[in-house]
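Trying the structure run again after the queue cleared.
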Amino acid sequence: MRVLMTGHDGYIGTVMTPMLQRAGHEVVGLDSCLFRPCLHGAPVPPVEEVRRDLRDVSADDLRGIDAIVHLAALSNDPLGDLAPEHTHDINHHASTRLAELAKDAGVRRFLYSSSCSVYGAADTTVLVDESAPLAPVSAYAQSKVAVEADLASLADDRFTPVYLRNATAYGWSPRLRLDLVLNDLVATAVLTGEILVLSDGTPWRPLVHIEDISRAFLSALEAPAEDVHDRAFNVGTEADNHQVSGLAAIVADVVPGSTIRITGEAGGDPRSYRVSFDRIRRELPTFDPRWDARRGAEQLRDRFREHGLAPEHRAFTYRRIAWLQSLIDEGRVDDHLRWRDEPVS
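Done. Tokens:
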């Protein structure tokens, strides 16, 4: 297929693009390239791309496209809470508009990168599945719920939306992020010898490696339409449901000499949920997850040692909210998160 991938230049997109290409698909990227300089160690292979803000996509951008993989978004809860209006504008309204344009252009399949954060605060004594009530507690998660509903209203025999509710991502990428729980715990251990947990360590999180997220999207892309039409799939494995304190213990074991410090200064976290991944196993049998948190922590440790990691990387370069704020402070990007000048090449 000829696949348009929004957010191809980001944390997940730079890993997913070559995987889809190796499977024989032609990938066209679309990205505003806000994070292009945030490179860790390895170059990103070139790909045909359109440098475009998601809010400015036109019908011309979608000509000849068979399927869309929609990753582009303001990418986490702190960033979403900083400017909720932009989160709803970009993550919700621009996403729905993209889907409407895609349907009009004859794009038949639309894979939406949703999130297990839509479950918000749930009963952690049971595993929540795709039929569980949605209880988003952040602007980011609310936008995911809204887009899923809008896409469902577009579904028909000409247009197949699929909602991939990813667990919390981890793992190394050339467009690294350290504002993700496991990635950050490993980074602090490598940099300081201390594994710093600001919450009380009790919240539950499902985790998934970004290579396994990519495998899930590839499976949904290639599956018969009747198997995925207007369906939500939790993406991950039950073995990677962890409490934050448990993740810290894994990191302590993987980074010898590091110690755990749980401060609790951030208080309790209302987002706590354990997730079932039975549906994706049953209905997308080609999905073959290969990672767990321990192997992911080892990968991160090894890449940090191989490519280097400095305190400013953790504080600034690989934290999305800090990087965007720096672009605003420098006048490169305006208050609506649009480039004032040409994107960094």
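The first strand starts at residue 2 and ends at 6. Worth checking whether this holds up in the mutant runs.
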